Amino acid sequence: MIVGRVTDDGVPLVELEIGGTSWTAVIDTGFNGDLQLPFALGPSVKARYRGMVSSLLADGHAIEEESYSVELPFDGRLVEAAATFGPDTEILIGTRLMREHRLEVDFLRRTVLIERSLAGL
Question: What is the dihedral of CA 86, 75, 4, 114, to 10 degrees?
Fold first, then answer.
């Protein structure tokens, strides 16, 4: 189980431990991929080039990006995921990474809960 919080601006956040450092990650329910990571995390997640992918952004335009297979701890397990990298220090968690989990965002209580679904066990 991963517990997080909702910011004053309504952004759901969780903390991930990657490469011995705690990183704040944004839960992005409009992103149907796995992850977007900062370039600096490439070595920590054993990034391996997969190829180019096309992504449709919220404003409607498509971009081409390099995709990588990565390994990172998520909800107590080491998982393999598809990631793109960018210059930001922000981590985005997409819905595909949570496909075996239940996501609960309580905006009133300002809490976030990600827990493995019984169907995903």
Answer: 110
* pTM to 2 decimal places: 0.89
Q: 107 pLDDT exceeds 70?
A: yes
State pLDDT tens for residues 23-76: 999 999 988 889 999 998 999 999 999 999 887 777 888 888 999 999 999 999
* Residues β-bridged to residue 34: none
Instruction: Average the pLDDT over 2-31 and give the result.
Output: 94
Identify the DSSP state of 29. Answer: T
In DSSP notation, 56-116 reads E-TTS-EEEEEEEEEEEEETTEEEEEEEEEESSS-EEE-GGGGTTEEEEEETTTTEEEEEE
Give the dihedral of Cα atoms 36, 45, 41, 76; nearest 10 deg.
80
b/e map 13-38, b = 16+ CB within 10 Å:
ebebebeeeebebbbbeebebbbbbe
Please give the domain boundaries of the chain with CATH numbers for all domains: 18-101 (2.40.70.10)
